[in-house]
Each structure stands twice: as structure tokens, then as C-alpha cells.
């Protein structure tokens, strides 16, 4: 069923795309739309972890921010010079992100998509960012959406986070030590897990798709 909500039809700076007829998690979309609407105006910057990777992340090429919400990472990457696509279930989030991009004169593509219903927007991507969103089948498919040499950045709280925070609930948490095993076929550049200075227990991983060997 095609989910026709006005925001899907709203043009944004570089054109809003919608993935077509897969069913959307309507209840989730409504809930996330409401949450994003409620938090509109509270602008958050990129996670300190992402910022700490400044020297490693590319300044050029195509980047995908999956379930990127109102674009705190997408906008930061666009400011760095990347050609960024922000994919999220919530049209409200994408509209807020597009408005922020417009105000800064940044190009930003937005895609309204249910990432639990199918794969990420087609690559190849030079960088994929997945922060605070957990859908294991999606993670499994991200490595092959990368360009050879492309990077995947994932950060997500683990079960130990429950020792200090009620939310996210258990269903939305990684098991402790689980993340590296979910990412196959990439060269791991950075893999850590523990309490962050902001007080969250997170797993964080950066990995690169190997370039094909010469002559193969
Ligand atoms: C906790 S927020 C994280 C947003 C962003 N990654 C960040 O770090 O600020 C989770 C995001 O996932 C989006 N989301 C939830 N379910 C989704 C789905 N099935 N497909 C795509 N996006 C989804 C929500 O709209 C929300 O923007």
C-alpha cells in the first residue's frame, strides 16, 4: 500500500524520493512524526563520536544517513562537502531537516522510507551513517551498499545502557558485544563499546569495504 501523506509529495531542495508501494509501519510513523514535531526547534549537533572521526571520514562523495531523523549528522556531512541523502520513516523529520538545509543553503536529498520493510536506498555510497537506529536486517545489507573503500559508521546503545536509562527499551538495544558480528565483509577500523562521556553505554564501529584486489 502506498502511504500517501502530504509530506511525501512535498518537494525539497534536491527532490524528495519515496520508495513506492511497500507497506509502511503506519503506527511507528505517526509516533515518530509526533515526537519529531514535539522536539522541533531543539536542534542537536552531530554526536561527539562522529565529530571525533573527522580525520577519517571523507569530505567528498555520496553519503547516506539511515534513519537520520532531523539530520544532525546529514547536515554536518553536507557542511563537510559530501553529497548527502537522508533517509527516514518520518516525513516530519525530513521536512525539518530540509528546512534547516535550505536555511544554510546546503544541498540535501531526503527519502521517506520504511527501513524495516526493505533495503536502504541504493548505493554505492562512500559513507553510510547509522546512529541510534537498530534494525538488524538493515545492518546486514549495508556493507554491500558501499563503494569499495567506502566507510560504514554505526553507533548504538547496548543492554548495559539499561543500568542507567530506561529508554531505549530492551527491544531496541544491541546485546553487549553484538555489533561487530552484525557487520560482515568489512575491514574494521574502529570498534569500541562502553560508557560514553555523555553517560550512555554504546557500541561504536567504523568499517571499510575493501577495495577489490588488483587483477581480480
Ligand atoms: C532515535 S532517532 C535517531 C535519529 C538520528 N539517527 C540521530 O542520530 O539523531 C531514530 C530515528 O529512526 C527513525 N525511524 C524509526 N523507525 C524507522 C523505520 N522503520 N524506517 C526508517 N526510519 C525509522 C525515526 O523517525 C527517527 O528519526
TrEMBL record:
GO biological process: methylation
Keywords: Methyltransferase, S-adenosyl-L-methionine, Transferase
Domain Methyltransferase: start-end pairs: 64-150
Domain of life: Bacteria
Record carries keyword Transmembrane: no
Keyword Oxidoreductase: no
InterPro entries: Methyltransf_25 (IPR041698), SAM-dependent_MTases_sf (IPR029063)
Gene Ontology MF: a single term: methyltransferase activity
Name recorded for this polypeptide: Tellurite resistance protein TehB
Amino acid at each position: 500500500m502506498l502511504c500517501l501523506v502530504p509530506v511525501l509529495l512535498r518537494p525539497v531542495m534536491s527532490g524528495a524520493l519515496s520508495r513506492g508501494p511497500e507497506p509502511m509501519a503506519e503506527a511507528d510513523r505517526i509516533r515518530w512524526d509526533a515526537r519529531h514535531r514535539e522536539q522541533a526547534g531543539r536542534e542537536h549537533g552531530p554526536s561527539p563520536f562522529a565529530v571525533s572521526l573527522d580525520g577519517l571520514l571523507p569530505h567528498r562523495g555520496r553519503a547516506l544517513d539511515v534513519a537520520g531523523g532531523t539530520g544532525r549528522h546529514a547536515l554536518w556531512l553536507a557542511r563537510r562537502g559530501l553529497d548527502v541523502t537522508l533517509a527516514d520513516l518520518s516525513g516530519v523529520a525530513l521536512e525539518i531537516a530540509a528546512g534547516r538545509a535550505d536555511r544554510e543553503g546546503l544541498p540535501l536529498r531526503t527519502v521517506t522510507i520504511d527501513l524495516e520493510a526493505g533495503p536502504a536506498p541504493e548505493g554505492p555510497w562512500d559513507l553510510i551513517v547509522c546512529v541510534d537506529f537498530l534494525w538488524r536486517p538493515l545492518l546486514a545489507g549495508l556493507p554491500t551498499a558501499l563503494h569499495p573503500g567506502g566507510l560504514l559508521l554505526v553507533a548504538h546503545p547496548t543492554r548495559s545502557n539499561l543500568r542507567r536509562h530506561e529508554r531505549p527499551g530492551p527491544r531496541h538495544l544491541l546485546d553487549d558485544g553484538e555489533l561487530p558480528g552484525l557487520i560482515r565483509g568489512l575491514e574494521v577500523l574502529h570498534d569500541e563499546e562502553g560508557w560514553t562521556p555523555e553517560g550512555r553505554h554504546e557500541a561504536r564501529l567504523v568499517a571499510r569495504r575493501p577495495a577489490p584486489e588488483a587483477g581480480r
